[in-house]
Design brief:
Layout: H1 2-13, E1 20-23, E2 38-41, H2 56-60, E3 65-76, H3 93-104, H4 116-122, E4 126-127, E5 136-149, H5 160-167, E6 174-181, E7 192-202, H6 211-218, E8 223-226, H7 238-254, H8 269-275, E9 283-293, E10 300-307, H9 314-326, H10 332-340, E11 355-363, E12 369-370, H11 403-412, H12 421-448, H13 451-459, H14 470-505
Parallel strand pairs: 5-11
Antiparallel strand pairs: 1-2, 3-5, 3-6, 4-5, 7-10, 7-11, 8-9, 9-10, 11-12
Helix pairs in contact: 11-12
């Protein structure tokens, strides 16, 4: 790697024509006076500036780069993008960010080529959470092997200088807030124990339930449940039933403005019972399901969900179900059927533009909370210890993400205990993005194109979301529950009989 960098530097020093510079650092940086580092590339006729030899910081550091595993804290507005993950042929957050890393000098030319999937593998790209089309994020974390100057994190541990220079190559709706050095084994997806989402909704379209009543119904989601009715592409019914449900989901997504056809779907309950399989991938642990009010936006409520993970469209369908209950279309009994029974329950999809991913809680391999961001001094990030893997049933209960609550404290001028100076600056950057970009963007879309109103008018009153055979479902489900209890009793009897025979042999 270093030979390649030296070769590129020699080209720059010889002033070869057809070269453009890529600088990951600027000598005028405010976080420690880090040097100007030049990368050369044969793409234009611009000349390449040389490293500033007069910079004391440059004299004290080696001119070589070092590829290091880092975590990128990224905020973005998802409007206009087809989700966060790479989707060939469509604009995505990750494709835009990858190009910016290349232009800023963090990715070498040898690791940047047309097949973006292979290019991401070369630099060890991984993500903490994926967001759907049109969904925003306040603190999404990605991990990548980035080319950085030696010892660049000594005076700037959260990499604000690197982030600022990457941002020069990004549109205003995507911001890298920090770049943090992490262990080589860091896996943002596997080490995110809890994820927090918030969906904003106008009070005028809540329905007949009060805030307290909404909280009571929403809390029924808390715990470990089978969310096969709330996730797109559920495989619970095998290939035969998947094709049917996939077609219905595609129709709904294409009509995301919720101008749905006025028709009642036809179900085959016998086949649903026959083909249904409980899959581990459909089980999700929900820790918090709350409805919040804010003095900053008194006309809106925030549906707050915290869980181990969420499937595609799950958050939007959970909120939509709550709104259906509030408007007397569904009942809590139907929620029990949706979570426990093998039957397909049609659930609408709220608009995506008011949903954002707030952040996650990270743990080490011992399932102990860790903090690589400096927002909690009492939660260390140990770079040296290789923690053993702990069985899932022995893991302690992780704490809910604190990103939002800490930002609110800073905004109110309250004391934030255990937050480092660098962590406070990161929270201030995130707060600035939330208040100046994210929330105003949602309000602007609401005023320009009131999808909330269309959802309320066209979806709430659509026969598509009616349970025409509720009495039949209730009767069928009672039979299934009785069969489950009988099977459970039979298994216990067999186990007891086995233990008795084992003791008799001894």
């Amino acid at each position: 790697m270093r030979r390649g960098v030296n070769r590129l530097r020699s080209i720059s020093n010889n002033s070869v024509s057809g070269v453009v510079s890529r600088s990951l650092f600027n000598s005028s940086s405010v976080h420690g006076g880090l040097p100007t580092l030049v990368y050369s590339r044969k793409f234009s006729t611009a000349s390449s500036p040389s490293p500033s030899s007069s910079s004391p910081a440059y004299d004290n550091l080696t001119s070589h780069t070092k590829k290091q595993r880092v975590a990128l804290v990224v905020s973005y507005i998802g409007t206009g993008y087809y989700g966060s993950q790479i989707n060939k042929g469509f604009p995505t957050i990750e494709a835009t960010l990858h190009e910016a890393l290349y232009k800023s000098g963090g990715v070498l030319e040898s690791n940047y080529f047309s097949d973006i999937s292979q290019a991401l593998k070369r630099i060890g790209w991984s993500r903490g959470s994926r967001t759907d089309k049109g969904v925003h994020a306040l603190t999404n974390v990605l991990s990548v092997k980035l080319e950085t100057p030696d010892r660049c994190f000594e005076k700037d541990p959260l990499g604000f200088d690197i982030a600022d220079n990457i941002n020069k190559h990004l549109p205003e709706n995507i911001r890298v807030q920090a770049v943090i050095r992490v262990p080589k084994s860091f896996d943002p997806r596997g080490q995110t124990s809890l994820r927090s989402y918030k969906l904003l909704w106008p009070k005028e379209y809540l329905g007949g339930l009060s805030i307290e009543e909404l909280r009571e119904v929403f809390s029924l989601f808390i715990g470990l449940n089978d969310f096969h009715n709330f996730c797109k592409d559920s495989k619970a019914y095998g290939d035969m039933m998947k094709k049917k449900t996939q077609n219905e989901e595609n129709e709904l997504e294409e009509n995301e403005e919720h101008n749905n056809e006025e028709r009642t779907p036809v179900f085959d309950r016998a086949n649903e019972e026959k083909f249904f399989t409980r899959l581990q991938e459909n089980y999700r642990q929900i820790q918090i399901a709350d409805v919040l009010e804010s003095s900053k936006t008194p006309e809106l409520v925030s549906f707050h969900l915290v869980g181990s993970s969420f499937g595609m469209h799950q958050v939007r369908k959970m909120v939509a179900f709550l709104l259906m209950v509030s408007n007397s279309k569904y009942t809590t009994e139907i929620l029990s059927l949706a979570l426990e029974s093998p039957y397909i329950i049609n659930i609408p999809l709220t608009p995506s533009f008011s949903l954002y991913y707030e952040g996650g809680t990270f743990v080490n391999r011992d399932w102990v909370p860790v903090d690589p961001f400096g927002i909690n001094t009492h939660i260390p990030w140990n770079l040296a210890v290789d923690y053993p893997i702990v069985k899932e049933k022995e893991r302690p209960q992780p704490h809910a993400p604190e990103w939002g609550s800490l930002m609110d404290k800073i905004e109110r001028g309250e004391e934030t205990k255990n937050v480092t100076p660098h962590g406070r600056e990161l929270l201030q950057r995130l707060l600035l993005f939330r208040n100046d970009k994210l929330l105003p963007h949602i309000q602007q879309l609401r005023e320009k194109d009131d999808q909330f109103k269309r959802f309320f008018e066209s979806t709430i009153h659509s026969p598509r979301y009616v349970i025409p055979d509720l009495d039949d479902l209730r009767t069928r489900f009672q039979v299934i529950k009785k069969q489950r209890e009988e099977k459970k009793l039979l298994r216990e009897q067999r186990k007891l009989s086995f233990e008795e025979r084992k003791l008799a042999v001894i």
